[in-house]
Amino acid sequence: MRLKRRSLLSALAAPLAMPVLAQAQAGLPAGWPDRPLRLILPYTPGGGTDTVARALGARLNTALGQSVVVENRPGAGGNLATELVATARPDGYTLLMGNQGPISVNPTLFGRNLKVNPQTALDPVAMVAETPLVLVAGPATGATTLAGLIEEARAKKGQLNYASPGNGAAGHLAMALLLQQAGVEATHVPFRGAAPGLTDVAAGHVAAMISTLPSVAGLVQGGALRALAVTGDKRVETMPDVPTVAETLPGYRVTAWYGILLPHGTPEPIRARLESAILTSLETPDLIRSLQTEGAVPYPMKGEEFGRFIAAERARWAPVIRAAGITAD
Hints:
By secondary structure, this protein is of the alpha/beta class. Helix content is 46%, strand content 20%.
């Protein structure tokens, strides 16, 4: 009887032991994760990075069996959040939602003033999503097409002005690259965030601006702004009549992208577990819908490929920054 009871207990315990055994075989610390994870992002609530982070975090709650707490740590062009994660304990519990600003632009923009180098202080886990940007114009310009805006800029010889959310922001770089490819100049007017810049474009104080799709959609639909072009490699479903920049300037492509990184030195099994959870989550209909609501699309990419992508982005934007004379605020 005792033998049978022992056998029964062993049989009941076997299913419970299997996940622990699988973790051990995968090299994961037993029980990981056994407490909430922190997802740090470098911007204030409500922006594109914030909404993507929260949509992903909600899905990872299910995938990892632990809550993922999103923390907004804005400041210094995204560098504060980068430093926080880079200097955190490399145990997989502190993640960074990175984008092109802090990760691929700031090493050139800030140079030796950076306290940590994202290239060596962080390990890429996975690319999450990207979103096209939209070039919009207001009553300060009569241009109704990108070609028309370029001709106006050429005629005004640098006096045409354009807004951006700040020096080195995605919209600033996208416009700088556009002007360089078009061979014209314009005057940059930086704002502290997209909303005040778009407000001034709509009021006629500034001619144009490149910003994210969600930030301009309502203003375009309401007639306050005109959408001249989208910056991705194809037209967007919600604005099918708006051409791409590449239809006027072949080869042009700019998107805002979002990806997850960890402190350098995080054990590979933990990094791989997070990579798998993120890529699997990006296949779920609810997360896809959440991203699409914010004008983003899933852009799944494994860590190794994501690392190469980041390196290519740094190499791509460095000459644009130098040619445009862009400096940190």
